[in-house]
């Protein structure tokens, strides 16, 4: 959602500043200091390059925040399901599919009569159709 860009509703000032700096590429990160041979490693996990994608997506220090963001999206999807799908054990969240030998755990499995709906949520960093297509291909392969 991008509602915060126009009204700032439910957004703290620090978040507002960060979002707009990140959109413009103005977040002060070690990998983007030009003109000096400074240490470009991440100040939190010592990864070689502290870039915006690393900080927001790949840094293990922030993995709990990333998982919370993923789980919040999944929670909204589960709440949007009709009550008939939620009752009677028809919905399985983050659990293996019964009767399948794979150890994979899809985010959401909904059983409806003879059909099964499998939902696997992903949060991509890049913006644009190619990023979504790539993420979709990875999920299908999984």
Lateral strand order in the biggest sheet: 1-2-3
Structural class based on helices, strands and sheet pairing: mainly alpha
**First-last Cα distance:** 27 Å
Number of distinct beta strands: 3
Helix share, percent: 25-40%
Strand content: 5-15%
Q: State the shape.
A: elongated
How many helical stretches? 5
SSE order: HHHHEEEH
Largest sheet, in brief, is: 3 strands, antiparallel
Tell me what you see in this structure.
By secondary structure, this protein is mostly helical. It is 38% helix and 9% strand. It has 5 helices and 3 strands. A 3-stranded antiparallel beta sheet has the order 1-2-3, with no helix packed on it. β2 and β3 form a beta hairpin. The longest helix has 18 residues. The two termini are 27 Å apart. The model has no long low-confidence stretch (mean pLDDT 81).
Topology:
Layout: H1 13-24, H2 52-58, H3 63-80, H4 83-86, E1 91-93, E2 108-112, E3 115-119, H5 129-141
Antiparallel strand pairs: 1-2, 2-3
What are the salient characteristics of this protein?
142 residues; 3 strands; mainly alpha; 5 helices; elongated
Explain briefly what this protein structure is.
The chain has 142 residues and is mainly alpha-helical.
């Amino acid at each position: 959602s991008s509602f915060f860009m126009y009204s700032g509703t439910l957004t703290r000032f620090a978040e507002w500043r960060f979002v707009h700096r990140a959109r413009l590429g103005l977040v002060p990160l070690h990998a983007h200091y030009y003109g000096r041979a400074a240490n470009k490693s991440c100040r939190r996990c010592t990864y070689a390059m502290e870039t915006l994608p690393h900080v927001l997506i790949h840094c293990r220090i922030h993995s709990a925040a990333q998982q919370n963001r993923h789980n919040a999206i999944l929670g909204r999807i589960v709440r949007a399901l009709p009550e008939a799908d939620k009752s009677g054990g028809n919905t399985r969240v983050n659990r293996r599919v019964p009767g399948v030998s794979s150890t994979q755990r899809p985010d959401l499995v909904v059983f409806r009569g003879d059909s099964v709906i499998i939902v696997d949520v992903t949060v991509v960093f890049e913006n644009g159709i190619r990023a979504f297509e790539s993420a979709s291909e990875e999920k299908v392969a999984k």
